[in-house]
Every structure is written in structure tokens, then in C-alpha cells.
Task: structure prediction
Amino acid sequence: ILAIGGTRFFGIHMVNELLSKGHDITIATRGKVSDGYGSKVKRVIIERTSEKSMKTALSGRHYDVVIDKIAYCSNDIKYAMESIDCDKYIHMSSTAVYESKHMSIRESEFNGVSKELVWCDRKAFPYEEIKRQAEYALWQEDSNRNWIAVRYPFVIGKDYTKRLLYYVEHTIKSVPMNIDNLDYRMGYIRSDEAGKFMAFLVDKDVRGAINGSSEGTISIREMIEYIEKKTGAKAVIDKTGDNAPYNGIPEYSINTEKARGLGFRFSVLQDWIYKLLDYYIQR
Result:
């Protein structure tokens, strides 16, 4: 298995899960970050956005499975597909591809063949459109290949994004927050499960898009009220305050029946979200 990326956040959980199952892992990165895997993995140095680098490093090698965690745009997909010989390609996509957000979004609600594919780099469009273009490349140019596009909502955990930390810290310190979706219920996926689900898919007979998400939803208000109760602090919600990280996101959740049909059971959001908030409160 070749893992493109895999040295940060839930990619670490993914690689560790693959290693625990006895897979032969090669990680492809820029080699600028210590990965901590020691002699457990092989390594290839690439520059992901360089067509020449991808072909030089990866051409002539065969992998049973490639997991590409850092393909953001259509050119990233193109460089991978032209450079790598593999039996299965797993693309880290996103629920950002869904143009209409609502409760229980199903995989079929994003049509990868109905709109124009534009070969583009990562800065050509906003994030949502960039991720759509990446999938357009798969649907329209690589329909004959065995690929999976994994779509997650926000991945949260003890992570570097500091999104949850924003709400905890601002509440505890009574720093004004501008929140435009306080009562919108949203779905999330825990970082370790995000990694484990990617690893789970390597030997499953499935193709096309597949959603992943913890079961259930929660609102920003519920999380803030929990922080207030635990700390005795009082959140200050004000339009002149600092803009919150989840602003502009509508109320929505992800349907995971396809994943459950393969035998994967995601955790219940309410069973772990408050423990994660406790971690950030203590921090």
C-alpha cells in the first residue's frame, strides 16, 4: 500500500491501523516532517503538486492500493493517475463537494459527470469547487479504473486545526464571538475513526463515492452551553466579535448506510464529543 501523505492528524491513525493489520506500507511525502514510524514503513520523497516529481518517484512501481490523502484539485488526480500503477486508488474527498446541504445527504447527490472538468491547480477556485474538480477528474477521466472517493464532514480530535479550541478558549475567556449558525445541527467524524475507515476500505469490494461520519449531530450552542456548565464561564455572542471557524456552514448531516453495509460501524457523536471538549477545557 502506498500512502500519499499520512504523517499528520488522522493520516497517522490510518497508517498505524494499516500497520496493525500487517500491510506493507510505503509513505510518500516531501520528507520534511519526522513521521515516527521508524523502520515499519518504506519512504518515497515527492513534491505532490509537481507532475515531474510524481512521475520520477512513482513511475515503474506497482501498488495493490494507493491512498491519496492530499489530492485537492484535478491536476493532483491527473498526476497521480498518470504516474502510479495500482489495483485500487482511494481518494480523500470531502462533503464539501455537495452543493446542497441538508440532513442525511447521500453519495448520489453529487453528480461527477454532469459538469465541466477543468484541469486546475489548488488555488484556482475556492476549496469546495477545487474538491469537486478533483472528483470530476475521477468520474470523467478515470471511470474505467477502480477508485473510491471518501467524503468526510469536519474531522475533529486532538488536532492542529484549533477549531474546537476556538469555541472553548473564547468562552472561557469571555472573548466576543461572531457565530452565524449557533443553532444549526451538524455532523462530524472523530479523527481516529477517519483514519481507521480509510484503512478499512483497502480490501473491501466497493467503488465510487462513500460517506463517513459519526452518528448524530450537535449544535454550536450545545457545545458552548456544555463549556459554560463545566467552567462557570459565560460565552459572549456578538456580531462584532471574532468570526467563528464554522461560520457559513448550514445545518446538515451525512448518510452512512453504504459504509454500514460494508460492515463498518461509526461511533455515536454524543458518546465522545463531550470528552473531547473536556480535553480542550483542560488544555
